[in-house]
Amino acid sequence: MRASSLIVRLRRKSGYTQAELARRSGIPRTAINAYERGNRTPTSATLARLAEACRHTLDASPRPTIDESANARALERVLDLAEMLPRRRRRRLSFPPLPGHCS
Predict the structure, then answer these.
(1) What predicted TM-score, i.e. pTM, was given to this entire model?
(2) What's the structural domain count of the chain?
(3) Cα maximum dimension of the chain
């Protein structure tokens, strides 16, 4: 959903005019108008502030995606390469079991 649509939806759901939202959020009405028309894009902090002024919360934290199986394969390759290094140890390298991987 675009930020402009979200701001309009939250404001209307709260029953506020742009002027009322401006008063409650401390963000100028002209800026809110520009955000709603899509002429300007608010920062995530500004968007969260507008949502809070409309009595809503906004979780806009980016969440990294982690591919555990790809990371497990990469770790396995690194450990295989480490095994090829000149030996200064007596035992084979080992690592804990990885999710979704059977050895």
Answers:
(1) 0.57
(2) 1
(3) 75
